[in-house]
């Protein structure tokens, strides 16, 4: 996986430390706002989460049907023990060949995933997401973003990310446009702790 796991960043592969670090970085408010304003969940919504990690986002949902895929066994084990039968978790890289065994989804999430992937793998994941969606369903992504107007602390933190493929708005947009017709891209500056995120919403 194209990510740095040396030094301090290596300890983030521990799911407890990863989740705690995310909270320190302001993830609680970010997730709450994301679910309320962008996901807009409803009971029974079918959600596929690619690169789900420990599936912390699931705590922000009402009763939905949730499938989480991740390549980290430690993260998937943590998701499984925390959420039990609230979700179905699989430790594997989602492939096109998995889709016939899965339902059609209202929403596919890829949160903090694209910046770990080079362009060809990121486009492949977006194609799988598109095929997994119902007609009218949406792919939603969030990633750290480089931006000329960002605060210096935000730029420093974004540059220190484990992912080796952090992009600017145009970079994320051109990925999404390879697969989806009219992706909606938004860059948001978080005030505290200073950070910059790129949100993408693509409708099938
Ligand atoms: C920054 S973490 C984000 C985790 C979670 N989505 C969140 O928001 O907290 C990125 C995750 O992507 C996973 N990952 C990286 N490449 C992947 C791939 N090709 N397929 C599935 N998961 C992948 C990593 O194991 C890691 O859990």
Secondary structure: elements and pairs:
Layout: H1 15-24, H2 27-39, E1 46-50, E2 65-70, H3 73-83, E3 87-91, E4 105-111, H4 119-132, E5 133-146, H5 152-159, E6 167-168, H6 169-179, E7 184-190, E8 195-203
Parallel strand pairs: 1-2, 1-4, 2-3, 4-5, 5-6
Antiparallel strand pairs: 5-8, 7-8
Helix pairs in contact: 4-6
Describe the structure in your own words.
The protein has 204 residues and is α/β, with parallel strands linked by helices. It has a single domain (7-203), classed as Rossmann fold (3-Layer(aba) Sandwich), CATH 3.40.50.150. Helix content is 33%, strand content 27%. It has six helices and eight strands. The chain has helices spanning 15-24, 27-39, 73-83, 119-132, 152-159, 169-179; strands at residues 46-50, 65-70, 87-91, 105-111, 133-146, 167-168, 184-190, 195-203. Strands 1, 2, 3, 4, 5, 6, 7 and 8 form an eight-stranded mixed β-sheet that branches. Strand 4, helix 4 (119-132) and strand 5 (133-146) form a beta-alpha-beta unit. The longest helix has 14 residues, at 119-132. The protein is globular. It starts with 14 loop residues before the first helix and ends with a strand. The mean pLDDT is 95. The chain binds S-adenosylmethionine. S-adenosylmethionine (SAM) binds at residues 1, 22, 50-53, 56-57, 69-72, 75, 93, 111-113, 116.
| Alpha-beta content class | alpha/beta
Listing every helix as H and every strand as E from the N terminus to the C terminus, the arrangement reads: HHEEHEEHEHEHEE
CATH class: Alpha Beta
| Biggest sheet layout | 8 strands, mixed
Mean pLDDT: 95
The shape, in one word, is globular
Instruction: Give unreliable regions as ranges.
Output: none
Rg from C-alpha positions? Answer: 16 Å
**In the CATH scheme, what's the topology name?**
Rossmann fold
Helical residues, percent = 25-40%
The CATH architecture would be 3-Layer(aba) Sandwich
The small-molecule ligands in this entry are: S-adenosylmethionine
Q: Proportion of β residues?
A: 25-35%
Output the CATH homologous superfamily: Vaccinia Virus protein VP39
């Amino acid at each position: 996986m194209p990510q740095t796991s040396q030094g301090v960043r290596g300890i983030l592969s521990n799911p407890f430390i990863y989740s705690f670090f995310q909270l320190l970085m302001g993830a609680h408010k970010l997730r709450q706002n994301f679910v309320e304003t962008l996901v807009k969940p409803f009971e029974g919504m079918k959600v596929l989460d690619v690169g789900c990690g420990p599936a912390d986002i699931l705590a922000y949902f009402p009763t939905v049907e949730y499938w989480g895929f991740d390549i980290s066994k430690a993260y998937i084990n943590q998701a499984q023990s925390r959420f039990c039968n609230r979700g179905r978790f699989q430790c594997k890289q989602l492939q096109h060949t998995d889709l016939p065994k899965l339902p059609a989804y209202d929403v596919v999430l890829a949160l903090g995933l694209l910046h770990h992937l080079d362009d060809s793998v990121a486009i492949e994941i977006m194609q799988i997401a598109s095929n997994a969606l119902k007609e009218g369903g949406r792919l939603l992504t969030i990633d750290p973003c480089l931006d000329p107007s960002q605060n210096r602390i935000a730029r420093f933190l974004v540059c220190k990310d484990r992912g080796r493929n952090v992009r600017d708005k145009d970079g994320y947009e051109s990925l999404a446009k390879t697969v989806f017709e009219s992706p909606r891209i938004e860059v948001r500056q978080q005030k505290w702790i200073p950070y910059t995120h790129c949100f993408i919403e693509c409708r099938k």
